[in-house]
Amino acid sequence: MASEKAWYWLAAGVLALGLNGAYQDGQFGWVHGFAERSTEMVERASMRGLSFVTAAETMLGRNSESMGWSEATLRSMQGRMACKRIEMAERQIDMAQMQRDLAAARVDRQLAKVQMKMDKVRVIAIESGNRAQKCSRLSRMVVTVPQVDLSNLPDVQMPAMQAPVAPSHDPI
Fold first, then answer.
1. What is the reported pTM?
2. How many CB atoms lie within 10 A of CB 85?
3. Which of 26, 32, 67, 170 could bridge to 57 as Cys pair (CB 3.0-4.6 Å)?
4. Are 42 and 81 in contact (CB under 8 A)?
5. By C-alpha distance, which of 29, 9, 16 is closest to 92?
6. Long-range contacts of 139-145, Cβ-Cβ distance < 8 Å, separation of 24 or more
């Protein structure tokens, strides 16, 4: 029983690490959007709350010290929210730079593959050219054409012929 619980916890930990890595790589865009929207909603609520608290304290006639404390509390909460938004923006910038670097690395890798293939083609072309130069029989090959005597052929007279003219077909 205890070992089964340990295996469950281990599996949950591995799953959490995998999901966290995917989240940090930006693969869960909808989660990032949800986090940003929730941050914006909390910020709007705190701004509204500040205005409501200020209006209520003014109407109820509370002393300025307690008004200052509640206002300071809301301002500090707004400051923390602003810091969180800045952190999220910096994280997004870092992810965008990392994705740009990954894309550049992919392009460089593909260019290197193409260059390697072109180098192989050049080597093959050079080797085939060298093989043709190394063939000693190719440079010494002599072609002799036998003499043919055409003097005993009979004279044949060819009558002049005209090519037949095709009738023209005019459209009606």
1. 0.38
2. 14
3. 67
4. yes
5. 29
6. none
Interatomic CA distance for residues 107 and 100, integer angstroms: 11
Instruction: Indicate the residue type of 63.
Output: N
Token pair for 7: 């295996």
- Alpha-carbon span 147 to 126, nearest angstrom: 40
Q: Which is it for the CA torsion 31, 33, 34, 40, positive or negative?
A: positive
Contacts of 57 by beta carbon, 8 Å cutoff, 6+ apart: 66, 67, 70
Contact 70/57 with Cβ under 8 angstroms?
A: yes
Say how far apart CA 58 and CA 76 lie, in whole Å: 21
Rounded-to-integer distance, Cα 90 and Cα 77, Å: 20
Q: What is the mean pLDDT of each run of 10 residues along the chain (172 residues)?
A: 84 86 76 78 80 71 64 80 87 89 91 89 80 59 68 74 67 58
The 10 Å CB-count burial string (b at 16+, else e) for 30-43 is eebeeeeeeeeeeb
What pLDDT was estimated at residue 21? Answer: 81
CA 123 from chain center: how many Å?
32
Closest CA to 85 of 36, 26, 46, 31: 36
Look at the block and give the residue holding tokens 């055409």. Answer: 150
